Amino acid sequence: MNFDARQMASQSGTSSHKTMGGKGAYKNADSAELDQNGQVLYGMDKELAAKAAAKFDPVMEADARNWIEAVTGAKLGEMPLQEELKDGTVLCTLVTTISPGVIKAPSTSKMPFKQMENISNYLLACDALGVPKHDQFQTVALFENKDMMAVLVNLQALGRAAQRASGNSGP
After folding, report:
1. Average pLDDT along the chain
2. pTM to 2 decimals?
């Protein structure tokens, strides 16, 4: 629509922007929906976040937490599971408990690239233990809390792979 058409539409009381102002349209920063990291969600990001939230299963998260604690013998903190796993050290300890020596010791550095490296090493160990690629997740899915459901599915697949591992009679 050119300038003249917009001017005529505003004089006649119609607007080309009314078609954009649907039910979930972004109106201003005060009414915007935020994700877990404080980023404004709109458009496709908002739809994907809603879809991920609808798929999330808190019972599955509790089961994963209990399984990790049973296998490693260490009690996790009171933070959400994503926060407990974010630096990758718990995941590395988990796969090392299942199969000693499968990966090197995790870094305890608080630097983000080192924490993401821990998650990557965990995913390499998952490969070595026979976890199918379709049951694995991208590092950012956990680190940036983009898709915790994919992480939970991966932990279930790791549990199945651990049961198949020779000499492992864990939970």
Report:
1. 80
2. 0.70
